Amino acid sequence: MPLASEWQWLKESVKGRLLAGFDVGRKRDESVLFVMDKVDGTMEARMLVRLRDVDFTSQENILKATMQNGITRLAIDATGIGLPLAEKLEQAYGSIVIPVHFTSQIKSKMVNKARMMLLDRKLRLPLERSIIAQLGSIEQKVTESGNIIFTVASSPDHHADIAWAILLCCHASRQTEEAGVSYESISTRQKNFTKTEKWRW
User: Fold this and answer.
1) What letter would DSSP give residue 50?
2) Is CATH 1.20.120.1730 correct for 16-200?
3) Of 6, 20, 25, 1, residue with least CA distance to 152
4) What is the pTM of this model?
5) How many Cα atoms within 13 Å fall on the side-chain side of residue 15?
């Protein structure tokens, strides 16, 4: 879990509105929290928290801490194992929380939104290999029946968890509209696996 000093850093670094995306995992996949600062229409990466083999109670506590530290919208994966967590947070925080059920249509909207933001230079991400690789691993395919689906290129290291958290964050930005990077720090703690990264632009 991020330290109190890291939450304080997040609150002090904000220049616009903090938005977050949370992709839910447990054993096989990581859970990933990605926080961005929306400044004059541009989304700037602020914080990445990666959780591997972290129980759902601890994940809920981390998200509650997130909500108490300036987040104005949180889009959370409400598909499968993510549904109970999404429901709890929506009950606690109301419309600030956006449960997202991953359908092909929703994924298409999310991918296209992020693509347009990147092309328009409205999405500022750190040039880190893991982030770039995961974004590039999401593939669009057309089935024999003509339906568009999104899959993730096979990898032993990830299931595009960071990428989906980023796309969820962009989705939170979209929902909000409708209603030189300095590397600050990396902290890693070895109770199960928690990794927090922060950026200031």
Assistant:
1) E
2) no
3) 25
4) 0.79
5) 14
